[in-house]
Design goal:
With 117 residues, the chain is of the alpha+beta class. The chain is built from five helices and four strands.
């Protein structure tokens, strides 16, 4: 089974990129073009049945930007299950709220950068 870039998620990925939240736009503006410690990031990257908000192939962290929808019990359980599945495949999931990114972008970038070997 090929885990990356499943074709059936292509439309959804495009939709997510075209409707990015303010926090996602701010973070992408700081991650794109290898601005963070020279690491390349991908936006709305497919991995298995999941779409990762941001992904660094060389270091393997997935950065997830959580809005208010992630506060519900159902979504919280889904996020936990998803994180465990990704962890089993060697991907560490870092979660930040929209507010953290908008108000404390340097802190967020520091936390992401600390994950690099």
């Amino acid at each position: 089974m090929h885990l990356n870039n499943r074709k059936n998620l292509k439309k959804r990925r495009k939709q997510l990129r075209n409707n990015a939240t303010l926090a996602e736009k701010i973070l992408w503006n700081r991650l794109r073009n290898q601005q963070l410690k020279g690491r390349k990031f991908r936006r709305q990257h497919r991995f298995g049945n999941y779409i990762l908000d941001f992904y660094c192939p060389s270091e393997q962290p997935a950065i997830e930007v959580d809005g208010k929808g992630h506060d519900t019990m159902d979504h919280s359980e889904y996020d936990q299950k998803r994180t465990k599945s990704l962890n089993r495949r060697g991907i560490k999931v870092l979660r930040f709220t929209n507010r953290e990114i908008i108000e404390h972008i340097e802190y967020v970038l520091g936390k992401i950068g600390n994950e690099f070997g």
